[in-house]
Design a protein that fits this description.
Helices cover 1% and strands 42% of the residues. The chain contains 1 helix and 22 strands. Strands 1, 7, 9, 11, 14 and 16 form a 6-stranded antiparallel β-sheet that branches. Strands 6-10-15-12-13 form a 5-stranded antiparallel β-sheet, with no helix packed on it. Strands 17-18-19-22 form a 4-stranded antiparallel β-sheet. Strand 17 and strand 18 form a beta hairpin.
């Protein structure tokens, strides 16, 4: 279902006043649908299944319409727009908030965004930690290789932000899963925090954020979320040696570290040596241990071979 936009936006569909999505029924608690009403919500009988099941996964919480268009947190167009083809996969259960205190409000907000036309806004007085479930997922996690990026901003007040990740289903329907919490850095204005899922393995079942305030009003917004495997950083090569020198041109070779982008030989020359090095025989070649042959000369700069 389309989210309810601001009343002044005329071009989007809205539910009639007092009506709610049929999945949850009359009670706005997706984790605990109403079991006493004469009409039972489908969520009581049908188990949902997440479509977020492969990496990378990314969203900017774009609902497919907006009052303005934003790029990097800046307005690039102040014209209202709608394009359902630009809608992201939105949070699956809107909105599950787990707290022992007063429940903050959670909405799609069209007054500001990181990219597109909307962001997720959490507003309220946080008298106790509040955990907001964002996505039920089936994402593979590769321990230290998998990272989560959150682009967020605090508009008012202050709150400690943590990423909450569950790798197992709840013990019973409607219960909270067992989360692992990771601290998220905060600063002034929009900022992107990268969290490495160190110590986790298996499958990510739930992605959430936990906000802990000091009892004062807080306005915090989430503009983007991404889950991906970070590029592996290869180990340093060994056995570096100069295999030839000719008129300012140097030829190197080394033993590469294991990895996809292992480079085994390189020729570097200075601009003044280019004329001299270009006179070298075309047949002059060198082979480093375990590498393919590479030409001895190169235009000024460098020439590396794998």
């Amino acid at each position: 279902m389309d989210p309810q936009p601001p009343a002044r936006e005329p071009h989007t569909r809205r539910l009639p006043r007092g009506r709610r999505p049929v999945l949850d029924g009359r009670v706005p608690r997706p984790a605990k649908p109403n079991t006493t009403a004469s009409w039972r919500a489908p969520a009581l009988r049908v188990a949902d299944r997440s479509t977020v099941d492969s990496l990378p996964f990314a969203t900017v919480f774009n609902t497919g319409h907006g009052l303005k268009w934003y790029e990097g947190g800046e307005v690039t167009s102040d014209t209202a727009w709608n394009h359902l083809g630009l809608q992201d996969r939105l949070p699956s259960r809107r909105w599950i908030v787990r707290t022992s205190g007063a429940r903050p409000s959670v909405t799609f907000d069209f007054a500001d965004a990181w990219r597109g036309g909307s962001s997720v806004l959490v507003a309220g007085t946080l008298g106790a930690p509040a955990t907001l479930d964002l996505y039920e997922t089936r994402l593979p996690v590769g321990s230290s290789e998998t990272v989560v990026e959150l682009t967020h901003r605090t508009d008012a007040g202050s709150a400690q932000i943590e990423l909450a990740v569950a790798t197992a289903e709840p013990s019973a329907p409607g219960q909270a899963p067992s989360y692992t919490y990771f601290p998220v850095s905060s600063g002034d204005g929009w900022g992107t925090s990268t969290v490495r899922l160190t110590g986790l393995s298996g499958t990510v079942r739930t992605l959430a954020v936990r906000l802990t305030g000091s009892g004062s009003p807080v306005r915090w917004r989430l503009g983007a979320l991404a889950v991906k495997n970070a590029p592996a950083e290869p180990a340093a090569p060994t056995g570096l040696r100069v295999t030839d020198a000719d008129g300012g041109s140097l030829r190197f070779s080394w033993q590469p570290a294991a990895g996809r982008y292992a480079t085994t030989s390189c020729t570097a020359s200075s601009p003044t040596a280019h004329a001299a090095s270009s006179a070298a025989p075309a047949s002059a070649r060198t082979t480093s241990p375990g590498s393919r042959p590479s030409r001895a000369r190169a235009p000024h700069g460098s020439n590396c071979a794998r």
